[in-house]
């Protein structure tokens, strides 16, 4: 079969949530039973049509398949599950007699129902997007169902736009899946690959029959360690794509490889070459997170298109078009030498960035011209393709504008702040270390006088409707600063009184003043900006609005101290102040591309260090620095992990090492699979670490014991993600399991995570049970000593 040439400019995908979160509104109205399925469908179609019209206006071809057909009601991996009719056994009743699952059924998979938990949600590679994990067992049905893909293609075709249906590829689908509960212990979903590939052959045939000229299969898992091993010559990817390419009836095939370097990192381009040789019409490479394919591996590209993902889709900075064009020109020479074609694209789907800088109303004046959100990135792709094909002069204006903006950014006063740089340059190793843990322990025991098995919470208390509406009213200017402050103080006083009444040992202020544990810090540090409409889908109908780190970071004034010291003044109990750690602040923001992340992390760390000094001065002797994102930034390839863990741990230590011995530093990490980073967690050198543990029934305590973890540890004794109250007996049982492997003198009793998403009724009861179970455990312990 002779190969098709891919359009010169395209994007791998576009934000699905809608410029004004139209999809969120449509979905939530439907789930609340305010609208029927037809209404939801119509709203989704209108949103897609508007998006496609916008993309066409920006310059993507309406009929050459350069428009991505990547819409998903909830999640692209769920859509692959639907296309494969791979309904997990525990949801089997939702499938029709022909095995397919409809929209209503798919929403049950996504959201659960009275009797079933939804599919597990997990982070999509190293992003903040969460996908729904397929559950595959020995006999999970696998049967092609191209109906939704065909219907969508046909609907847009009838409207004059030719989309390129997009689907997670077969290898990635199975690598992203987990073994269904009840499958044999050594069952690996990948053993179902042949069946999945056969289903894809059928799906391709159905799309070809509907007239789709191109289809896009995303294979991002081939950039992870495990997937990469399958993407070298002679391995699985080669045979899978030989089969798919040999399908007699199929559209032209684009295979995308975003999020890193696919296959052997020492041989960038090798995977693209082998896919082309297998018969794939167009292969993509991520030139932002992945390495530039090298000439030696491009020889196999004859007749194929290489789609160069040169526009960053994970961050919001304006592209340096001049250097990009140079890179593209060099690459094209090599690709042409091999008999191939070069096209321009994005590094991944643009789903990770907001829609449009033009919708921003509150950004500081200097910022908009430095930025590119999805729409601006589409224009960048088009400009680069034009420059590549019509010559640099054809895009001289665009290049000059980008150059000027980049120059302004580099020279802007806040970009590099001498005082911040000097402070960083003068750091010595001593700034990263406290005295030894035992000395600290003695000082803290004297200062704090805590009981055995101290009880505490992770920081936030329920964010009630009242708290959220007061914040909204304050933002909107309908209540003034004084009224808002008065409201928050009352709320804090209530939270402190409740904790006293419940008999908790270490109290917190409850975080009522914080909209979000990262955004609140970004708002109070110099160097960050807030968007007004920069929403990015997090999962399903949920979106977050990451802050933008644009300059050197410092802390102009103490900001958590007033709230925390006010709360502490209301009680005689030991009091714990709450901060968010440097890695988490960066992980949940858009970060700089003009400085290594490690430099930004140390700047944030110093800002936090200042806050800690002020908290200490205000008499706060326990301070928690949350790092729930430490693990999520872990690089996808193991060869990069040591370096990352080195600087990330250092930044935490820099933030906390100014504390005196008697100040007890806590940290919190809300996940339990941390076997691979246990060394790093130990190296944080926190006096007390709280972790998630209830769902895995304290499994982690054994790992900790085997490791020899010697400092304070609070494995969560109740799962705050579920709206149910754990009984005293349940909590007691988990405490007992923990006591089975850990020393009673190091054990803390706390929930898994913060309580801000919970209601007061359940929180009160749950914490009462936690305290009662702890009191009972203490008396057993004192009897046995
Ligand atoms: C995602 S971790 C949350 C920690 C924070 N202190 C809270 O309690 O909400
Ligand atoms: Zn947490």
From TrEMBL:
<keyword id="KW-0489">Methyltransferase</keyword>
<keyword id="KW-0808">Transferase</keyword>
<keyword id="KW-0862">Zinc</keyword>
<dbReference type="Pfam" id="PF08267">
    <property type="entry name" value="Meth_synt_1"/>
</dbReference>
<keyword id="KW-0028">Amino-acid biosynthesis</keyword>
<comment type="pathway">
    <text>Amino-acid biosynthesis; L-methionine biosynthesis via de novo pathway; L-methionine from L-homocysteine (MetE route): step 1/1.</text>
</comment>
<comment type="similarity">
    <text>Belongs to the vitamin-B12 independent methionine synthase family.</text>
</comment>
<dbReference type="GO" id="GO:0003871">
    <property type="term" value="F:5-methyltetrahydropteroyltriglutamate-homocysteine S-methyltransferase activity"/>
</dbReference>
<feature type="domain" description="Cobalamin-independent methionine synthase MetE N-terminal">
    <location>
        <begin position="9"/>
        <end position="334"/>
    </location>
</feature>
<dbReference type="Pfam" id="PF01717">
    <property type="entry name" value="Meth_synt_2"/>
</dbReference>
<keyword id="KW-0677">Repeat</keyword>
<dbReference type="InterPro" id="IPR006276">
    <property type="entry name" value="Cobalamin-indep_Met_synthase"/>
</dbReference>
<keyword id="KW-0479">Metal-binding</keyword>
<feature type="domain" description="Cobalamin-independent methionine synthase MetE C-terminal/archaeal">
    <location>
        <begin position="453"/>
        <end position="774"/>
    </location>
</feature>
<protein>
    <recommendedName>
        <fullName>5-methyltetrahydropteroyltriglutamate--homocysteine S-methyltransferase</fullName>
        <ecNumber>2.1.1.14</ecNumber>
    </recommendedName>
</protein>
<dbReference type="InterPro" id="IPR038071">
    <property type="entry name" value="UROD/MetE-like_sf"/>
</dbReference>
<dbReference type="InterPro" id="IPR002629">
    <property type="entry name" value="Met_Synth_C/arc"/>
</dbReference>
<dbReference type="GO" id="GO:0032259">
    <property type="term" value="P:methylation"/>
</dbReference>
<comment type="function">
    <text>Catalyzes the transfer of a methyl group from 5-methyltetrahydrofolate to homocysteine resulting in methionine formation.</text>
</comment>
<keyword id="KW-0486">Methionine biosynthesis</keyword>
<dbReference type="InterPro" id="IPR013215">
    <property type="entry name" value="Cbl-indep_Met_Synth_N"/>
</dbReference>
